[in-house]
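Instructor's aside before we start: the two examples that follow are unrelated to each other. I chose them only because their records fit on one page, so don't look for a connection. First example below.
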Amino acid sequence: MAQHDASGKHSAGNHSSDRSSQETKKIETNKSAASASSSAPTEKIKTASPDQTKEMPRAAKTAAKTADKGVKAAAPAAEKKTVKPVTTGAAEAEAAQQKKRTGIIAAIVIIVVLIAAVIGFMAMNSNKPAEVQNNDMEVVDVESEPVDNPVDFAALQAQNPDVYGFMNIPNTNVDLPILFNAENDNYYLTHDIDGNSTIVGAIYTQSMNKQDFTDPVTVLYGHTLLNGTMFSELHKFEDPEFFEQNPYFTIYLPNEILTYEAMAALEYDDKHIMNTYDFTNETVVQEFFDSMQHPEAANSLVREGEELKADTDKIVVLSTCTQPANDAKRFLLVGKLMSRQPTK
């Protein structure tokens, strides 16, 4: 029994020694694991495979997972940082300055346009007589100094000696020379200013009229054409609003500027005015004046407040075809002479 007990103790001692040895190994192993845990995350990120990760101690695996999460969390943050727009106070200030500059440029453009419009309006109305004092178109007779003549008659007469006048009707394309051919009254019915044969013709008067517009009635002739030239735009005066807003037109002579008031626009029969009436007879003149002031045609336009008197007044009649064309009719624009301005 004693031996058995001794053997038992001996065996117990051996078991105790074995446990101590195992515990020592376990401590060393834990130390090795602890030492490995400090480097494990780096190794796993760089080279660890799934099998190697499975064999790692728990602490090392935990550290490796933590490192993985850190790397994964850091990557989106870095991506966000690269694409996130950055707005600074300097950028906002630059945008405000740009907006201010744009506003200034727009204001300058508007001012320039307004100035151009005013200049254009003044130029368009430069043909109105200086003597007009009010909206009733009352003309005050005044003596005035000679003014510059805007028409270069020397150049026009060098082009064709038959040019003796020039006329302008605002807001139309009637801005044309006036011609007279002493050999053929109807020459410019079928010829232009250069003498070319053409259906366009030119603006002209005939031998029954003087070229100084001192006759009681002076008639100017011109075609109405599909291309809108010559006297075609006289038909604008058939519109009551245009007639009302464009009361004056001008005829230039080498030594005078004559201003007329457009006092009537009407259709008339096809009789030849200068061959039909004896305008040396004052009574006949008054009868013709009355027919212009009180026309029979229903669509005629007459400016109110004006009366023609044979003993004092002189008129010019612009004669063209009707629109649409009617060979039995003529369209007339009648102008009353308002002023004669001498030129240099």
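Example two begins here.
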Amino acid sequence: MIPRNPYFKKLVGVQESPIRISVEKVITVLVFVIAIGMISCVSKNGNHSGITKERFGALPDGREVNLYTLQNRNSMKVKISDYGCIVQSIIVPDRNEHFTDVVLGFDSLQGYLKNNLYFGSIVGRYADRIANGKFILDSTEYSLEQNSFPNHLHGGVTGFDKVLWSAKEIASPNYYTLQLTYNSPDGDQGYPGELKVKTTYKLNDNNELEIRYEAVTNKPTIVNLTNHTYFNLKDGGKSSISDHFLVLNADQFVPVNKLLIPIGGFRNCEGTPMDFRKSVSIGNRIESEDEQIRFGNGYDHYWIVNRINQQLVKAAIVNEPVTGRVLEVWTTQPAIHLYTGNFLNGTFKGKAGTIYQKRNGFCLETQHIADSPNHLEFPSTILKPGEKYDYRTVFKFNVEK
């Protein structure tokens, strides 16, 4: 693929290496997996890798919530809860091999139950806003909860971020995999059709965390899923992300009104504070008097990912110069949403008592565009019986020496 932006030197998909092993080796692997009680091993450098499970708390109705830790042979750890599919923690090294948690969140389940900024969760059925909580599908108008009045936000009051998913650990030679499923009934939060959803987290030894979103329905409906993790590659939310440097593989962005609803169409990034085609610090233009920046109180916008096919493509690169940590975001989704923690206001006490101030975290949410059901010019979010909603995003962590 020839990239539109020379900064992206190799826009190629993340590929899985083919594995050819004999029957004897398959048997050996199976016996090994059974012997260790499903997925745990020790690498050559002595680091334990695999998946562990611990109790995270209980919901008000008494149902138990668990926390799963995926650890690879490099000692990278990802902690995921079956409540809301929440990414509770991602622990990665800096250039000096110091390991730090680089996502915002809470030490206990109670922190997630009483706070409503979607920390680390899967949001749906429809991520982001739907204008006035209404859309028309097959000549029928549907009314959704206006939980961000007058609009509908992130699937409603009880979206996918606030339900208990069924979790399954999956043994694999190359990945540490957690699969979570949830069945959303017909009429849930006002949406038509029963929707069967599957979210799969896969960590490999290249420090890549893949999230795969799958869904099927028994009636025409709309679907838009994403992960709402807040990142701070320097210190996990103790300081501003303004000095993180960002590149977006996008020539166009989606303009919005003051309620952050798309006004229709796309605009070129060139000559605007939305131009991240070359590396620039997130805070460089975030206080601009540009109308779009004022509407979002910072960045709260969509960029259209440059692509020539539906394969994984590199959509974003974030570099934190003090620690040397680098985050690449690859996706099959059509757009990426940058949110710069504009609603963090110092009232959220996170992990280890950290107070999350405005712009202490950023989100890079790969997804379809907000309010797409009301914009025919946007990529469709309609899912019909017999079709499959199927998208992937990969968060790849590196270190720049």
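Confidence is low (pLDDT under 50) at residues 1-39.
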